[in-house]
Amino acid sequence: MEKDRNQDNPEKFSDRLNDFIGRHRKAILGVFIAIIVAVIVACVALVLVHRSAEARVNALDDLEGQYALLSMMDSGSAGYADAVSSFRLGAEDIIAEGIDDYAGAKAQYLLADLAFAEKDWTAAAAYYSGIAAAQSDTYLAPLSLMNEAVCYENLGDNEKALSLYTQVIDTYGEDCAYAPKAMFSMGRLYVGMGEMELAEAEFETLTGLYLAPANGGSPSEYARMAEAFLINFAE
Asked: What dihedral do alpha carbons 65, 67, 72, 74 form, nearest 10°?
């Protein structure tokens, strides 16, 4: 009898399942349809995101081409102003969607470089600052900080420039490709400010780290320039 009862269990389960499906058919169908719709929406969203990213990359390629042409043009030529206007509109279209991705950040970087070339130091510094904040985990951040520091040097704000060079070293470390240049720039600024002891200390740190790198790499050109300064300073 126990064996027969066990054999009946699958049939009873099947009957109960069929009864449940029959009573809740509409709800089950609704859930199934909702899942299908969600999958379709997700797929469409992925396609749209991919297309949007691809469009931004293509737009950036065009923008870089425009910038290359601008770099070769005479700023006093008849078509220069129109070319700059078109370039800025293209850059702003890309930037409008944000600078958290490479396309947006690079578009703003090109705008910063244009402002730098035109010696609009305040505008260039603001552009570089935004990139450094948005791209803190990419090479664009320390590069932008270095350029921003130069802008402040040109504005006569050496203290701000020093803080930015220090930020490069403190944030990205001694292994950062821009660290030797940042240290040399700090020493150079100290010399210009008459702070010779601070300059000497900065150059000594620079030569100690990069004149004979521990990893066996080539000496930094900035370390060699710092060494020359220290030799002259000792004479």
From this structure: 140
